[in-house]
Structure formats: C-alpha cells, structure tokens
Amino acid sequence: MRLFIGIPLDDAVAVELAALTERLKPSSEGLRWSAAAGWHITLQFLGSTRPDQYDCVAAALRRIRGEPFEIQLEPPGFFDRAGVFFAGVRLAPQLTGLQQQVVTATRPCGFIPEDRPYHPHITLAREKSGSRALRQLKSRLPNRTQFSTFVAKEFRLYESFPGPGGSRYETRERFELRTV
C-alpha cells in the first residue's frame, strides 16, 4: 500500500480553491487538475508500506500530541521544474512542529525523512509532459488571491490509489489534535 500523512482542508477553504481553479480550467489545456476531494497538506509521504510498517506507523502517530492550530494559505505559486501549480501554506511554528513530530514518529518504522526543507502546499494542477501550460497559466492568474484561514483539528493517515486520471485517496486513520 502507498501511504502518506496529511492535514485535510476546511470546507470553506476548499470552496475558495475550487472557485479559483474553476475560473482557470476552461482555458488551461495541457494541465491535469487535482480533484478537490484529494486536496490536503502533506506532512510526510511514506510511499510503499508493508503491513508491519503500517501497524508501526499507526501506533506511533496515535502517540503524537498537539493542539489545534490556525493554517493560512498563501497566494498560488508554481514549482516550475516539477510542473506543478499549487496554493502555498504559510510555514507556522505549530505546522512545522507537527510535521517534525510525524517524521520523528515514522523513523523507527523504517521511513527516512526527505533532505529538502519542508514546503507545505496544496497541489492544484500538474503540467502534462511536453506542455507549456504553466507559462500560460501564470499570465492569467489573478494578481491578488486571498484565502481564508482555518483551524487544523486533525491529521490523517491516507492511502493513495494511483490511476490514469490522477490518484484517489482514502483515509485509513484520523488523529485528533486536542487542546491540552
């Protein structure tokens, strides 16, 4: 099974992102848009996971403690080399703290953290191979895009099911953030 750990989006923020993507989609040939149902903020991608690793990860994540915290989305951006259009997520101490707890919890289960710095974001679209759609999209992006804040009350362990139209995600387990 292919697993990752992430924070689900608040419904109101998902509606705002959907409104933005719906305005941009009609004239965006060469992009594969992410399904709104799959939008999330990744804390750690685990990838291929054995059943014994799953049990280890789930048990370790159940021990994580943290309080709910506010998440602020930033204006949309681009990972040009990867061909990705995304909504940024402000790097706040509570978010990086949770991400570090997750990485620490999964390490004894055999998962190695990435070398690159944590850059939380929500993937909205990916450029199809050989396309120049991101360049065209950049020119049509509204100058000022603001999104609401929301409170992260939980994080989840997701299973990813890759398919020809993009991946589908299912929640395997939820982990509540509680006020101490």
Description of the structure:
With 180 residues, the chain is α+β, with helices and mostly antiparallel strands. It has helices at 11-24, 51-62, 93-106, 133-140, and strands at residues 2-8, 31-33, 40-48, 69-79, 84-89, 121-127, 149-152, 154-161, 168-176. The strands form 2 sheets. A 5-stranded antiparallel beta sheet has the order 2-6-5-4-7, covered by helices on one side. A hairpin with a 4-residue loop joins β4 (69-79) and β5. The protein is globular and about 45 Å long.
Topology:
Elements: E1 2-8, H1 11-24, E2 31-33, E3 40-48, H2 51-62, E4 69-79, E5 84-89, H3 93-106, E6 121-127, H4 133-140, E7 149-152, E8 154-161, E9 168-176
Antiparallel strand pairs: 1-3, 1-8, 2-6, 4-5, 4-7, 5-6, 8-9
In CATH terms, what is the architecture? Answer: Alpha-Beta Complex
- Percent helix, as a range, is 25-40%
Low-confidence stretches: none
Return the string of H and E elements.
EHEEHEEHEHEEE
CATH class: Alpha Beta
The number of domains is: 1
The overall pLDDT, averaged over residues, is 91
The global form is: globular
CATH topology, by name, is: Cyclic Phosphodiesterase, Chain: A
Judged by helices, strands and strand pairing, the structural class is alpha+beta
* Rg computed from alpha carbons, rounded to a whole number of angstroms: 17 Å
Characterize the biggest β-sheet. Answer: 5 strands, antiparallel
Number of strands: 9
Strand content: 35-45%
The N- and C-terminal alpha carbons lie at a distance of 34 Å
**SS field, number of helical segments:** 4
CATH homologous superfamily (4th level) name = Cyclic phosphodiesterase
Record the strand order, biggest sheet: 2-6-5-4-7
